[in-house]
């Protein structure tokens, strides 16, 4: 009974009035007979089995019980508890976690099931999965940047830029009504590839240019500023038609990529050049070049 009360007395369950359990009905039956609740074989085995067989709800209880005739014991049973306050996805997640915690605290095996809990499992694992996948993508991009750009500080600078872009996309996705789910996670990971382009090109042009930091920034922007703008703007215009499609997956993809391109463009043409012009060129360990900044 302690287990039943634990499940019933939560903010997501309706209490005793929402519980369907053969044992509670049997206790009501004994109470109507004014029977003393003693731990005797007659009450808890013979009379219970007879009641389960001949009660008006015998078909229902038959589906809820697995009785082993060999051992004359109940191998398993099922009870139903009505839920409440599970309208929002986060409430599904919290309800699943709470009920599973109560089940794990019992001295015997208890399994929890609700038709919405498969979705709750997605909500539970989606954030750590997103962080892990984004982290792995950043590690891969770091390795590629180190191979293609002969400057470790430059590779670090690119990674910081990508992280900044991803954080910006995360934040504005919330304001734009995009929830973190499997679709947005995939789109977010894909967007890292776009973020790399917008950051790496301008940094590489800066490293390979001549002069001090300011001169290198001017050279990088004069050579790649317009192509970067054209590439980002054409991508934005190309995916903008997707906004007219009334489909969640397509709209999520559009919003994620659109945010990535806009925020990445701001980084590539404004934020990164400003920071590069401030940092002395000696920090980037470019061989054969003296800083006159």
List the helices and strands and how they pair.
Blueprint: H1 2-8, E1 19-20, H2 22-32, H3 41-54, H4 58-64, E2 65-68, E3 73-77, E4 80-81, H5 89-104, H6 117-148, H7 152-175, H8 182-208, H9 213-240, H10 248-278
Antiparallel strand pairs: 1-4, 2-3
Helix pairs in contact: 3-4, 5-6, 6-7, 6-8, 7-8, 7-10, 8-9, 8-10, 9-10
Transmembrane segments: 133-149, 155-173, 185-207, 227-245, 257-283
Organism: Panagrolaimus superbus
Membrane topology: Multi-pass membrane protein
Describe this structure in words.
This protein is mostly helical and 293 residues long. It has two domains: 2-104, no CATH class; 126-284, Multidrug efflux transporter AcrB transmembrane fold (Up-down Bundle), CATH 1.20.1640.10. It has ten helices and four strands; from the N terminus they run αβαααβββαααααα. The chain has helices spanning 2-8, 22-32, 41-54, 58-64, 89-104, 117-148, 152-175, 182-208, 213-240, 248-278; strands at 19-20, 65-68, 73-77, 80-81. The strands form two sheets. The chain has a two-stranded antiparallel sheet with strand order 1-4. Strands 2-3 form a two-stranded antiparallel ribbon. β2 and β3 form a beta hairpin. Mean pLDDT is 83; it is low at 288-293.
